[in-house]
Design brief:
429 residues, alpha+beta, Immunoglobulin-like, 3 domains, five-stranded mixed sheet, 10 helices, 18 strands, globular, disordered N terminus
């Protein structure tokens, strides 16, 4: 009898706690499986006045995430209501959770959750006109049965070296819903390749892979590069990082501002997964180069004056390091622009100081050492960086001029060694 009374009392206490704290409410969703970015209908009911006062909310979480690791969210209203959410862009397992109190990220505030999955079905088909092409030739690709969901998720077709990892893509093209035909330029390489279709961008896994079509390339023109650069130049070709202006050029020569702008645009497109478009209005009187205008529109370079770009001027090593660091910032640092660049600071462990550190311009030092920290750039020997020419003799000899092959090698290293997590070392104002 005593045990019964105790149990009864505990039950009454729990009931009173529910009443006091208003722990009610439920949440449901219209489906259990969504495509990336698909619209979700979320029904919330039994929401009390007390919960509204406590700023009760529903939010998307990755499966098993901590209470404070919420994604998109919405506050609620009394009673029953329907809300619209957009499913996450990344495939995986998720939960829609209901919390009765905002800013209390623990089990006390948690009410319930409903699991769901974001998945991309293997839909779509690609085909090629033939199975053998000449290097650098335009390859016609036919794409069929692309869904609206795939288009919204950034479905794309890309050139891969046979057997390459999912993230080792080369030239690529986003695809539209339905059927279409477009051209992708083959790299300047010989060997066996694949044209692959992926259902979602930035998800370099088997889950996003749809299908591939094999083909071979021959007739590649050897790049004129130094021995030390040959491996990285080949990687640059595989990754689609070599702009048209450099494909048949002597890569050992110094790089011009216009050529460097083209390299920067290719790198930006690779890192960000975003196609660059040229500025509609050209402010420059000395060039109408489309890559220059793309770099201007993206915000990774500007002119040496309001109406002058100086496309044929050469870049030195500290300028190259700075411009490519801007590409990284533009790709991964939210809110960064060329205009507010000076407000951002670097927070990383400094590497050994170059012997000619005093010759490096103050505005270039953060970029130079950021690149050196991550193994992207190194010195020219004897721990010297050779940032720029100072004497007339150095200027005449193109001392410290960045070369075409150096720019391409740096781009490859940035692609391989840097990612979004490294952006944490760049501190917003």
């Amino acid at each position: 009898m005593k045990k019964f009374i105790i149990v009864l009392i505990l039950a009454l206490i729990c009931l009173l706690q529910v009443t006091v704290f208003g722990i009610t409410g439920s949440v449901s969703i219209n489906k259990t499986i969504y495509a990336p970015n698909e619209q979700m209908i979320v029904k919330v009911s039994e929401i009390t006045e007390q919960m509204i006062e406590d700023e009760a909310y529903v939010s998307i979480y990755q499966k098993g995430a901590a209470h404070d690791q919420y994604m998109s969210w919405s506050y609620l209203q009394v009673g029953t209501s329907e809300l619209e959410f957009e499913a996450p862009s990344e495939t995986g397992s998720y939960e829609m959770r209901l919390y009765r109190i905002d800013h209390v990220y623990n089990d006390e505030s948690f009410v319930m959750s409903v699991p769901f999955t974001v998945s991309m079905k293997s839909q779509g088909e690609i085909s090629l006109e033939k199975d053998a092409y000449i290097a650098q030739q335009e390859i016609s690709v036919t794409v069929k049965d692309i869904t609206q969901e795939m288009e919204k998720a950034g479905a794309y077709v890309s050139v891969f070296k046979k057997g390459a990892k999912h993230n080792e893509y080369g030239q690529y093209q986003y695809v539209k819903a339905g059927n279409s035909v477009f051209e992708i330029q083959a790299p300047n390489l010989n060997g066996e390749f694949e044209m692959r279709l992926y259902s979602i961008d930035h998800n370099y896994t088997e889950e996003a892979f749809v299908m591939s079509v094999p083909f071979t390339l021959s007739g590649a023109v050897p790049y004129n590069s130094s021995d030390w650069a040959k491996t990285e130049i080949e990687k640059a070709a595989e990754m689609g990082l070599i702009p048209d202006s450099l494909k048949n050029a002597d890569l050992t020569k110094p790089i011009t501002r216009a050529e460097f702008a083209a390299v920067s645009v290719k790198l930006y497109e690779k890192l960000s997964g975003t196609k660059a478009t040229p500025a509609i209005v050209n402010p420059f009187k000395d060039t109408n180069d489309q890559d220059v205008l793309k770099a201007l529109e993206v915000g990774i370079t500007a002119g040496i004056a309001a109406d002058k770009f100086a496309p044929d001027n050469l870049l030195n090593r500290e300028q190259a390091a700075t411009m490519l660091t801007r590409v990284f910032k533009k790709s991964y640092v939210e809110g960064w622009t060329l205009a507010n660049d000076g407000k951002y600071t670097f927070n990383y462990t400094m590497p050994a100081i170059f012997k000619d550190d005093a010759k490096i311009s103050d505005w270039a030092k953060p970029s130079v050492y950021f690149m050196a920290t991550h193994g992207i750039i190194s010195g020219v020997g004897d721990n010297n960086f050779a940032p720029k020419a100072i004497t007339p003799a150095e200027l005449a000899a193109n001392y410290a001029s960045a070369t075409r092959e150096q720019a391409l090698a740096i781009s490859v290293r940035m692609t391989e060694k840097l990612n979004e997590s490294d952006a944490k070392e760049i501190v917003a104002p």
